[in-house]
């Protein structure tokens, strides 16, 4: 009986060790990506805009406006807007605000800034809104 108890005890200890290793690996490999890592070092391409209740697709926006529809935010706080071909860059700065629920864009035309409220941020999608005068613009970008 004593031998069976030792055998059972050693198997139990072995199982506890194996489970501990599995849980440690699972916990450490958990995706703990920060918002900074999600938003930076990617080229975001405009997918759609809702302005004053009107939905515009990227094709409609490019027909009307034709520029500044790719956005790259870098970890050093700089940003670049370019047209749909990646040309005609406009540079400025960005920074998180309000516990990373908003980001401020400034320095592009030296006089104004936009405060953007993030509504969805994943590895491939960025949704935010900001006020353009009295109109609320809801922006949807996807990773290029």
Key descriptive features of the protein:
alpha+beta; 2 domains; 3 helices
Report on this model:
The chain is an alpha+beta fold. The chain has 2 domains: 1-30; 35-143, Domain of unknown function DUF4822 (Lipocalin, Beta Barrel), CATH 2.40.128. Helix content is 27%, strand content 42%. It has 3 helices and 9 strands; from the N terminus they run ααββαβββββββ. The chain has an 8-stranded antiparallel beta barrel.
Order of helices and strands: HHEEHEEEEEEE
Number of strands: 9
Low-confidence stretches: 18-31
Radius of gyration: 24 Å
The first-to-last residue Cα distance is 67 Å
Number of domains: 2
Q: Please, how many helices?
A: 3
CATH classification, class level of the largest domain: Mainly Beta
CATH architecture of the largest domain: Beta Barrel
Using the alpha-carbon principal axes, give the shape. Answer: globular
What does the main sheet amount to? 8 strands, antiparallel, barrel
Task: Kindly identify the CATH topology of the largest domain.
Answer: Lipocalin
In CATH, the homologous superfamily of the largest domain goes by the name: Domain of unknown function DUF4822
Strand order of the largest sheet: 1-3-4-5-6-7-8-9
Helix and strand content put the structural class at alpha+beta
Strand content: 35-45%
Mean pLDDT: 79
The helical percent reads 25-40%
